[in-house]
Amino acid sequence: MKTKLFLKLIFLVFLISIAGCEENLPTYPNNTSKQTSTHKKVLLVGIDGLQFERIAALNTPNLDKLHISKAYTGGIKGNLSHQATSSGPGWTSILTGVWKDKHGVPNNSSGTYKSKAKSIYRLIKENKNNTSIASIATWSPIHEFLQNDMSLVDYQNEGGSDANSTNLGVHQISNSNHDLVFIHLDNVDIVGHASGFGSAYDNAIIAADQQLGQLMDAITQRLATKNEDWLIMVTTDHGRNSNGGYSHGGTTESEKTIFIGMNKPGNQEFKSKISNLPNTDFDGLYGYPAQTSIVPTILRHMEINIETNWQLSSAPLIGADGPRKLLFVNNNQNELFWVSNSESNAEIYKNNQLVTTVPASQGNYLDTATNDGKTTYTIRIEESTASIESRNQNLKIIACLDWNDMLNNRAYFFRNDGQYIRYNKLKDKTDSGYPKETNNSSWPGLGAYKELITAALKWNNHKGYFFLSDGKYLRYDMNADKVDKGYPTLINNNNWTGLEGWRDKIIGAVNWNNNKAYFFLNDGTYIRYSITNDSADPGYPRSINNSNWPGLGSYATSISSVIDWDSKYVYFFLTDNTYIKYDKQKDATVSGYPKNVDDTTWPGILN
Ligand SMILES: [Zn+2]
């Protein structure tokens, strides 16, 4: 086994590093005699949850007939493209060529999410006549995520066993004339969840390799009588957690590591890792091809022109290299990096509008414009594209609501783009599926006022209060999960004694959980409110300064929202998307703040 592993590693290194020798390598099937009338066909086999490194370690004669490159899933951590290493987002990326920010599938809830992006099925059907497609998925949710496009598919089957899916696949290849056949095998992942890494998992991989062999044999038999050029691709949706291999979904190197196998030698993007990148996270994993490279590779093989406005994330792995490794250079997400050896030009598009043309080899573009909202940058080189989406630079947290109770440690963050985030305080990250729109189904009674929200706080008896920029407020019943009848209503000296004069100046509110609440005003002052007396304490508003709020004085007029976090800390979010941690017991700002609100400090809240 060790000798085999060594030889296989040598072989893989050889494949990846030696250009020019590719003609001598075994290509399967042989296509040296292709003519213009040759039918371009594709077999895509997906093996769920297969850890790349096990291929080299095991006896997998059918995978060994292919050229295999390590690759990555999960998008780019810290970018809008970031997604869980789960099957829902993974298979959707494999079949749409885009990440979560474009396809919108964050997890495995197939009843809740369906792809917002066109699938490879639609791209083929809308751009090439007389095509036929078969899609066979042992894990049936794959088809549910693609439900917008499944009516375009000529043959589909979902569920059952991998053996059944393989038999159906062989039958479809042998007895129909499909142009794309996709087959998903699930058992490797099932065994991985049940047994982790080990002999059962390895045996499941060997069995999947044999099923791959049956499918490849069916193509070999077709080629005996038909003038066809088959692209065979094999991939997986995600790796597994290195701690035993039982689970996945997280953002670790082994979970993000996948592979792409092809019967074609591929271009430089497939064959050669790029090490010199502005982002070397996960041991340089982004230097390998992306999971989103599969769709453009299929399109190119089928001789379908790749349109710029499809905003596909990655360039093909065959033919002339397009824009490679499109990444943001800076945290501001307005400077682009890419790799190209092309002597032609790179067209740079913002939200599908051509903004400039630069030499492709320049590999860098700084956008000096001020952009409102999210911006999708698309680079076009050599008839293919890569796209990346920047976060909304003007996005801000405008209100926070602590929903803390014994059952679920949740906090809600409301943003100026009309969306909100549910934050898991135990896991210290945004729950999957967020942001969501603030509307009358997510927050009954609040939807019409989402643009006006300036502050929120949790009161006693499961009531939350939302304060609006027009001096009104809403009372939200956290048990009934809706706005109480009769709201919004104007703040006056009966309902909020002592607040009336400042009712349209409130920009932050927090329950200090010592029978005091604090209201922060847009002029750098604050009001202390006695919950016991239900009135503002006398002598307020007062200025926020470093005597009454140590460390906060310089930021008195920059506060955007405030949230009580736990018995010890309160967080202040500032208008420039930094935040301050305030120690309630010491009654002082924790040193080292403000810090940036980003994907490390507050995962997901600005995505
Ligand atoms: Zn799984």
Provide a descriptive summary of the structure in words:
The protein has three domains: 2-18 and 38-271 and 289-302, Alkaline Phosphatase, subunit A (3-Layer(aba) Sandwich); 320-393, Immunoglobulin-like, CATH 2.60.40.10; 397-596, Hemopexin, CATH 2.110.10.10. A seven-stranded mixed sheet has the order 2-7-6-1-5-3-4, sandwiched between helices. It is elongated. Residues 1-7 and 9-35 have low confidence and may be disordered. By secondary structure, the protein is α+β, with helices and mostly antiparallel strands. α7 (162-175) packs parallel to α9 and α8 (187-195) runs antiparallel to α9 (199-223). 19% of the residues lie in helices and 28% in strands. The protein contains 13 helices and 34 strands. Residues 49, 87, 189, 193, 248 line the site of zinc ion. Zinc ion (ZN) binds next to α8.
Sum up the structure in keywords:
single chain; 607 residues; alpha+beta; Alkaline Phosphatase, subunit A; Immunoglobulin-like; Hemopexin; 3 domains; 13 helices; binds zinc ion; Alkaline_phosphatase_core_sf; Hemopexin-like_repeat; signal; Hemopexin-like_dom_sf; hydrolase activity
> How is the main sheet built?
7 strands, mixed
* Structure annotation, total helices: 13
What is the strand arrangement across the widest sheet? Answer: 2-7-6-1-5-3-4
Shape field: elongated
Distance between the termini: 46 Å
As for the number of domains, it is 3
The CATH class of the largest domain, by name, is Alpha Beta
Q: Please mark out the parts with pLDDT under 50 across 5 or more consecutive residues, or reply none.
A: 1-7, 9-35
Signal peptide: 1-19
GO molecular function: hydrolase activity
Pfam families: Hemopexin, Phosphodiest
Keywords: Signal
